[in-house]
Amino acid sequence: MQDIIARNGLETPEPLKAEVKSVPPWLQGTLVRNGPGLFSVGNSEYNHWFDGLSLIHSFTFHNEVTYRSKYLKSETYKSNTKADRIVVSEFGTMVYPDPCKNIFAVPNFTDNNLINIIRYGQDYYASSEVNYINQIDPLTLETVGRANYRNHIALNLATAHPHYDKDGNTFNMGTAIIGLGRPKYIIFKVPANASKDPKKPALRKVQQICSVPFRSTLYPSYFHSFGMTENYIVFVEQPFKLDIVKLATAYFRGVNWGSCLKFDEKDSTFFHVINIKTGKAKSLHYHADALVVFHHINAYEEDDHVVFDIIAYKDSNLYDMFYLHNMTKETDNFIQTNKVFSPPVCQRFVLPLNVQKQDSPKGTNLVTLTDTTAQAVMQDDGSIYCKPDTIFEMELPGINYNFNARKYRYFYGSRLEWSPHPNKQIAKVDIVTKTHVEWRQENCYPSEPVFVASPGAEEEDDVILSSVVSSDPSVSPFLLILNAKTFEEVGRASIPVPVHIDLHGLFI
């Protein structure tokens, strides 16, 4: 894996026919995936895996399976390739100008959208967590053009993991650091009927639902995703924070932007429950012990409770692991180094909604649901201290999105074991029985599993897709198709060109 993790990817701009071994005939559409693919430009190299320039690739199902890949032609990509070196700073790589030039020149802000593919209206965008997103054509993978959130809503940062309701509306969150008024978190909506006309971007119809003020003006919480139920947005304000002063002076201090994130293990985690229709937050103060969360799994309401599942860590050391000097170590050295990193754990929190502070007994569990051990205990100060139910160790979670915001039973994700021969597996977890089934193949590294429902399907488990690369040169990269019920292989489509390791994507 160390040999392929930071290998520069190759473009396959024209559709390439895959060698197919059994594909369900109903499977029609395109799986578009995004991730870092270019780690050096000229003689310059990035420091962090999350810095690599976005390489988008796709698997299209239409009587046959075809593969494409193209670099996102962002302004960052164009600037770097024109200069034949890295000239735009990224998360873990700060770039400095020629000393003969003005040392006070401010670095360009990146639009290298390498994390996910998201939909606003009928438009599709490569996204990361900055104020820029780049529209793409999901069939040809051509870059259509760049959009700036700030031209439509006052945001400096936004997540790459929005939610979509049953009507096709898109909900997302962002952070407003600079602008009028007090710094705040913003929740917004882009209607499903937003225009497809490139001259009229979908974001022009953006609607702000509400704002949540920072608890600490100079230290806003970092967030990568959020939860959504039928009636509420669930926002986890975690003690993994962005140091605004350090961020503003990072260039002059000679440090990268990644170093501006700090985990405060002595602080608490706060949960905000916001009504989607009214934009008002519940007045109850829910809190938990310090944790770090990147990915939400699902959230739903049941008997006057909000239930939400997240992948939680005990600290923020995960980011450090992805510095390339760590990723490219010899296997045994890599394993020894990474023993200190806390594992990703699926935790379920349950928040009772209709609680009267004056009538609720102090020190007792207010959760009345019988299918969880999660607790919510009223404190003397009227706040509610939450303790989670632990389910399973997993990352990169996905569900049958038809069950988003609904009570569900299964989720899918990636597992990584540290051993002399680390093998990455994908797994299906049964939340009710707390059991799981896995798929693995020697020396193979499957991507985040993506669920696809067959036409008219009502059951929660159907088909799983995953892009798989191998460190064995005799095994071609392939798209894996699994029966989501049994996790047995249904088929695969082998690709006769190199495929890069990616992050997230969308089946269209």
How would you describe this structure to a colleague?
With 508 residues, this protein is mainly beta. The protein has one domain. Helix content is 7%, strand content 40%. It is built from 7 helices and 39 strands. The strands form 9 sheets. Strands 1, 3, 4, 7, 8 and 39 form a 6-stranded antiparallel beta sheet that branches. Strand 32 (424-430) and strand 33 (435-439) form a beta hairpin. The model has no long low-confidence stretch (mean pLDDT 91).
Average pLDDT number: 91
Which secondary-structure class do the elements indicate?
mainly beta
Biggest sheet character = 6 strands, antiparallel
Strand content: 35-45%
Instruction: State the share of residues found in helices, binned by percent.
Output: under 10%
Integer count of domains: 1
Segments where pLDDT lies below 50 for 5+ residues? none
Oligomer: single chain
Distance linking N and C termini: 29 Å
- Shape from CA axes? globular
Number of helices: 7
Report the count of strand segments. 39
Rg (C-alpha, Å): 22 Å
